[in-house]
Write a structure and sequence with these properties.
- With about 325 residues, the chain is α+β, with helices and mostly antiparallel strands.
- Helix content is about 35%, strand content about 25%.
- The chain has 13 helices and 14 strands.
- The strands form three sheets. It has a ten-stranded antiparallel β-sheet with strand order 4-5-6-7-3-2-1-8-9-10, with helices on both faces. The protein has a two-stranded antiparallel sheet with strand order 11-12.
- Strand 4 and strand 5 form a beta hairpin.
- It is globular, with a radius of gyration of 25 Å.
């Protein structure tokens, strides 16, 4: 009997799950999330040496120390952005995951110092402010930002249920294990297409199915690191063999860009190692005839791509060197050679 009581007590204890596992579980079979990742905000601030600036240190330093008593303010913040993306590029819904260190201290801070009306529902405490709703229980806090008529309790209940479920496997799990960079973001091309609307959904069903299969388990991983006053951005495509075979850009570390720049004082320069025929084939495959009902990238976008393509068809050797030598009188459009 004593052993059974001990077992029951242990089984009922709260689970202290790693935050990356909460995000991993939230992403599992979630076809609405188009981008996800984490941001080490405190690390970025420390690299910026904010403590050396009196006013910033007085404001941020004291706040971070205060927050650190009830949440992991110095650890990474995990996020998931839901599609479809709006015209300005913002997500339909943003979900943020934060580790809670002291549940009662957080509750006291929100109620006493922030004057939020706290409510209890379905095992979690929550408060709302405009388009934002915050819910927390045990060691996990979830913030949802969404302009929606959906009930706050239902939004949070669904988020907690997902975050406490089974973790993802495969590519998503691999991406979340990485600890490099100060900001990490993974973009699901399948979900990006799946949540899109407009011209992307006007293609014949067979073409849409073909594209869905092509983009399945296709991700773009981006990492931003701030070191010694520099921002280093690394982008890695995590594609299947079929999609990878259709890409028309390839790395060429020995590209002779410097000697091809010519005379003058360029503002910037870049080199493209491009297979123009593969680019043309991919554009035609996705876009179809310009102006057709099934134009996947839209009539305007397809026309712009074809215009750029026309200038590249005469390139010899697959390289195109572009060097802006000067800008127009409004300093808005570079003039290339």
């Amino acid at each position: 009997l004593f052993a059974l009581l001990i077992f029951a007590a242990c089984s009922g204890s709260e689970e202290k799950r790693d935050m990356s596992e909460n995000l991993s579980a939230y992403l599992n079979e979630n076809t609405e999330v188009v981008a996800f990742g984490k941001a080490n905000l405190n690390t970025i601030l420390e690299k910026a040496d904010y403590t050396s600036v009196g006013m910033l240190n007085a404001v941020l330093g004291s706040q971070i120390d205060k927050f650190e008593t009830f949440i992991d303010a110095k650890g990474p913040i995990y996020y998931a952005a839901h599609g479809p993306l709006k015209k300005d590029g913002s997500p339909e819904k943003m979900v943020i995951f934060v580790r809670v260190k002291d549940h009662e201290a957080l509750k006291k801070y929100l109620g006493s110092e922030m004057s939020y009306d706290l409510n209890e529902a379905k095992g979690f405490t929550y408060a709302s402010d405009g388009d934002m709703v915050l819910g927390f229980k045990q060691h996990l806090a979830i913030i949802i930002v969404q302009n929606s008529d959906a009930k706050e309790v239902d939004l949070l209940a669904d988020a907690f249920k997902r975050a406490e479920g089974k973790a993802s496997t495969g590519t998503i799990a691999e991406m979340l294990k990485s600890n490099t960079g100060d900001v990490q973001m993974g973009v699901s091309l399948a979900n990006l297409y799946g949540t899109a609307s407009g011209d992307l959904k006007k293609a014949p069903k067979s073409k849409q199915k073909e594209l869905e299969l092509l983009l399945k388990n296709a991700f773009v991983k981006s990492t931003v690191s701030f070191e010694n006053g520099q921002a280093v951005i690394e982008i890695k495509n995590m594609f299947g063999k079929e999609l990878q075979s259709k890409l028309f850009l390839a790395g060429n570390p020995s590209a002779p860009i410097l000697k091809e720049l010519g005379a003058g004082t360029p503002r910037m320069g870049f080199s493209l190692n491009m297979d123009v025929k593969k680019m043309e084939a991919l554009v035609n495959e996705l876009a179809g005839p310009a102006g057709s009902e099934g134009d996947l990238v839209g009539q305007v976008e397809a026309t712009q791509v074809r215009d750029a393509e026309a200038h590249l068809l005469d390139v010899r050797g697959g390289d195109r060197i572009v060097s802006p030598q000067r800008f127009d009188e409004h300093l808005t459009h570079p003039i290339f050679r």
